[in-house]
Structures are given as C-alpha cells and as structure tokens.
Write a structure and sequence with these properties.
alpha+beta; single chain; about 50% helix; rod-shaped; about 180 residues
Length: about 180
C-alpha cells in the first residue's frame, strides 16, 4: 500500500470519527427540540381543556342540578304516602343541600367550586344540633373527553353522566349511610 492511499484512509477515518463524535450533540439537540415541542403541545392542550371547562361548567352544573331535582321529585312521588321515605332538596345560588325528613341529622351539601373546575360535596351526620358526629367529603374534578364533553372524575373513577352522579349523591342520604 502506498503512503498516499494510507494517508487518505487515515484522513477519512479521522473525519468519520469527528462526524460520529458530533452526532451525539445533534442527537441531544434533536431530543431537546422534540421535548420542547411536546411540552408546548401539552401546554396548548391544557389551555384548550381549561377553556372548554370554563365555557361549559355552569351548563354542566345546571344539568346536574336538574337531574338531582328530578330524582328528588321521583323519591317524593314514590313515597307520597310515607313522608319518612322522601328526600328534600334545598337550592342555593352556588349549591344545594339534600335531607331526608326521617333522618334530619343526615345531610348532603354540594357546591360548584369557585374556580368552576370542580364540584365539592360533604355528607354530615349531626347529633341533635351539636357538631358533626361524622362527615365525609370529596371533590369531583372536571375532565374533558375526546369529544369535548365534560365529565367528572374522583380518584380515577369517571362519572360520565348526571344519573351516576345523582345516584352517588342521593343514595347515601336515602340510606342514611356516609360510607
């Protein structure tokens, strides 16, 4: 092998090594750019979800309240001759309360969070006007499905319609059980 060929091969190898050594920088830069695009897309998606929630949470709340009200009326109809079995709904500007006349110490309080991003609830068992003997509360967080429709979630459990929520709220008051 002549010295010119050998020198050319060594130069080619050195150039290839430099190019390979520079590839990790290009790979790192491309990974960083991809990560930045993903974060931007995620932030944009969060902003869109927040807009959907802000635009629709009051209408969702109104639908939930209408369902709870209809279900309370059904309880009153079912127990028209037995007032001990019916439920009573008290509405407030930002929430509602449900009681059962035969269990006046058991109540449910539900309200739309001030942010409009969640619904909070609290079950209470009072002891004849004294502080609550027991209580159980929680927060249902608004989520948006792929169709752009709101639903509520609590600890991984999705409530996809008003009937599920109404049942969760009213069944415990009717039974007098907090858990």
């Amino acid at each position: 092998m002549d010295s010119v060929s050998r020198a050319a091969r060594l130069t080619d190898k050195a150039t290839a090594k430099r190019e390979m050594a520079g590839d990790w920088i290009s790979d790192l830069a491309e990974a960083a750019k991809t990560h930045d695009r993903m974060l931007l897309k995620r932030e944009h998606s969060r902003a869109q979800v927040a807009q959907v929630i802000a635009a629709n949470s009051q209408r969702f709340w109104d639908g939930l309240l209408a369902t709870v009200e209809a279900d309370v009326l059904r309880f009153q109809h079912e127990f028209a001759h037995d007032p001990n079995g019916s439920l009573i709904l008290e509405k407030f500007p930002t929430g509602f309360r449900v009681v059962r006349p035969s269990l006046p110490d058991v109540s449910l309080h539900v309200h739309l969070d001030v942010s409009g991003e969640a619904i909070e609830f609290q079950y209470r068992t009072d002891a004849g006007g004294k502080p609550a003997v027991s209580e159980w509360s929680g927060t249902l967080t608004f989520r948006v499905n792929t169709n752009g429709t709101l639903y509520l979630n609590q600890y991984g459990r999705d409530f996809m319609n008003f009937e599920e929520l109404s049942r969760m709220f009213l069944e415990r008051v009717f039974k007098g059980a907090l858990r």
